[in-house]
Request: fold
Amino acid sequence: MKFQEMIGQQALKDHLQTAIKTGKTSHAYIIGGEKGSGKKMLAEAFAATLLCEEHGQDACGVCHSCKQALNHNQPDIIYVSHDNPNQISVDDIRQQINNDIVVRPYSSSHKVYIVDEAEKMNVAAQNALLKTIEEPPEYAVILLLTTNIDAFLPTILSRCITLEMKPVPDELVKKYLMQTQGIPDYQADMSVNFAQGNLGKAVMLCRSEEFEEMRTDVVTIGRTILDKRDYEILNYVQMINERCQSKEEKKKSVDRDRVNEYLDLFRIWYRDVLLYKSAGSQARLIFKDEKNHIKRQAERRSYASLNHIFEALEDTRGKLNANVSFELTMELLFKAMKES
Ligand SMILES: [Zn+2]
Reply:
């Protein structure tokens, strides 16, 4: 993994590569960004470069250390794991970082700890880590990867350099999808627009049959909901509920990521309707192949009703985060979409 192979994130790459060049790397970094934004890729490129036997500004990719890094068996890159999927405990931090960090690097000049999902550290775990971050051994670098920077104690934040992943420009994402992944133009467009600068998400969407299914659902509901009766709306709720049931676990639970993707797709659908209504043009529509239906919706809906839908979509996210019943929340959302 090399900096050079990463798409976008130029400012962050420059920052880290300059730090490596001038020997001014920090002992602790927070790398923040949503799922799929490339946090791990950046962390791994940084780690591999720090340990590379060529000591350049990027990993050479061919030395023994780089090969080990690529295969995830470089002994001086430590991936901190946690058994409880919902929490990183104080024991995890003590055993895998605090007790290990005192041992000098096995074969390199540095020892790099990568803590993924670091927002899952509880307060005790963060306090345990704090002791290490306050007085780290000279060779240690700790990388905290997180989707939520706000989850850290101020004392942790103040001792880390925070790097935030930025959206990758759409044209770079599209080029990558088409040239590297072989995705056709029309499909790349939809994924690029939906992913909003998140490269990992764009790639995932292109390969996802589920995404196509979700898109079809959103189009079906978006086209017809104005003319549906209450019991038919409940059928839609039921359909989305079934689609969003988590497949990984046996117990019944809703797959949050999936729900959020549905909400995003609805937002894009109604954004298209608003765009058509205000600009009267189809040039920038994301649901390009639905332009006739978008036009029809734009004619039938007022600005106030569209605003009401955008508010309802935001409201829905808040309610689901607050664990309000999924079916009830979706029913309220669809009823808001039905009111014209
Ligand atoms: Zn190398």
Remarks:
- Residues 295 and 320 are 31 Å apart (CA to CA).
- The mean pLDDT is 93.
